[in-house]
Every structure is written in structure tokens, then in C-alpha cells.
Amino acid sequence: MMIHDVTAEAGKYKARKRVGRGHGSGQGKQAGRGHKGAGSRRGHSVLHQFEGGQMPYFRRMPKFGFTNVQFKTRFWVVNLRDIVAQDAFAKGGDVTPESLIAAGLVRDLSRDVKVLGDLGEAGKLGVKLDVKVSRVSNSAVAAITEAGGSVEQSGTRRDRVRGVDRNSDDLTPKNLTKKLRRGGAKKKS
Length: 189
What we know:
This protein is α/β, with parallel strands linked by helices. It is 17% helix and 13% strand. The protein has five helices and six strands; from the N terminus they run αβαβαβββαβα. It has helices at 57-60, 80-85, 97-103, 138-146, 157-162, and strands spanning 75-79, 93-95, 112-116, 129-133, 135-136, 150-153. The protein is elongated, with a radius of gyration of 37 Å. The N and C termini lie far apart (79 Å).
């Protein structure tokens, strides 16, 4: 055959490789399946991403994308029983982040402070406390006001941005920049 005899039809139809059909098929002995092992048996299948047990390519790729974890509000948490147990607050007084740092209950001002209402075995608060921190739990507010104290919550940065007043009964945000409409009626122009 010469090069000028090759036409567009040459190689158009390629015969299917019939594996496992004996020596006469042209695929003799192992029939193109290699030596032994699962790959030489019929019914064998392997996932396309399997790389022989090494860490697959798609798992070696770095993760990326958006996450909210960096915007999480973290608190220094202090219980009422720990506050009352300190000598500085044994007779009452002002509870502020600075006074809690001085008493050794809070490490520093890097986080907001939250006061929880766990009183331990005492059950009731016996001293008058004036609490001025970022957050106070509902049970702590009830215990402090019942003992004749006062609570003033400054709120977190997120509260201030969203316009939430922690000292009022209405805790709905006032500064929402965008109102969400989910499948409601379209706005009339």
C-alpha cells in the first residue's frame, strides 16, 4: 500500500477488542488484562478517582471558599457564684470588665463579657450588684434585680451594628440594611 492509496475511509471502522477469547483472538494468554489480581477477573470495577491507596488528587487540593467562623462572637463567661465568691464582690459593688479583670475572673478586654446566672448551692443572690457588661443571661438578670441590683448591657459589636438595644424588651434589629423578601408579593412601583 502506498501513501496515495490511503483515503478518508481508511481506519474509519476499527474492530472491537474481544478480550478473553483465547489465543486465536490476537490477545493471547492474559487477553490484555495483565497478570492475576482483581483487575484480571471479570466483574471487577474501581472508582475512577482511586489512585492505588495514595491520597487522591481531589483530597490533596486546598479547601477554599467562604466561612462564617471568623465572625463568631466569643465571650469571657463568668457565673454569679464565681463573682460572689470573690472578696471584691462579697459585699456587692460594681461589676464591670475592669473589675472582673482585677478580681482575676476575666483575662483581658479582648472579648466581650457575659454573666450567667448559676448561683451554685446558694440558690439566691444575697448582695446588691450593679452589673455593666456586654451580655447578661435572663436568669442572671432575674437574680440580680431580685437582690436589689441593676443590670446594664452594652451589647456586642454585632448588636450595635444591627441596632439591637439589649436593655429594652424589644430585641429586634433596627438597622437592617436589606429586607429579605422570600416569595412574597412584588413591590408596586
